[in-house]
Design a protein that fits this description.
This protein is mainly alpha-helical. It is 71% helix and 0% strand. It contains five helices and no strands. Helix 1 packs antiparallel against helix 2.
Length: 100
C-alpha cells in the first residue's frame, strides 16, 4: 500500500462534504455500516474533516426537527379542518350563525 496516498473518503462522507449537507440516502448508508467500519473511517479522517462531518450531521438533524415541526403543524390544521367538514361547514372562517 502506498503510504503517501491520501486515504479515500467513505462515499457518504465525500457526498456530505461535497454538498455541505447530509441527505437521507447518505445517512441510511452510514447507519447500515458495521460499527467497526465506521470507527475505521473516522480514524482515517482529519480532525477538521470530523468537525465538518459533525456540523453536517447537526444541520441534517436540525432540518429533520424543522420538518417534524412543520408536519405536526400541518396535521393540526388538517384535524381542525376535518372537524368543520364533519359538521358540514366550509371551514374555520364560518360565522357563529352558520355553526348553529
Amino acid at each position: 500500500k502506498d503510504r503517501g496516498a491520501m486515504p479515500q473518503k467513505p462515499p457518504a462522507v465525500a457526498a456530505a462534504q461535497s454538498t455541505g449537507a447530509w441527505q437521507d440516502g447518505s445517512v441510511l448508508n452510514e447507519l447500515g455500516k458495521p460499527e467497526a467500519e465506521i470507527e475505521t473511517d473516522s480514524q482515517q479522517m482529519s480532525l477538521d474533516a470530523l468537525r465538518a462531518q459533525n456540523r453536517s450531521i447537526e444541520e441534517y438533524v436540525m432540518n429533520l426537527v424543522r420538518v417534524r415541526d412543520e408536519l405536526k403543524h400541518i396535521t393540526k390544521l388538517a384535524e381542525e379542518r376535518d372537524s368543520y367538514y364533519i359538521l358540514g361547514l366550509e371551514g374555520p372562517s364560518v360565522t357563529d350563525s352558520e355553526v348553529r
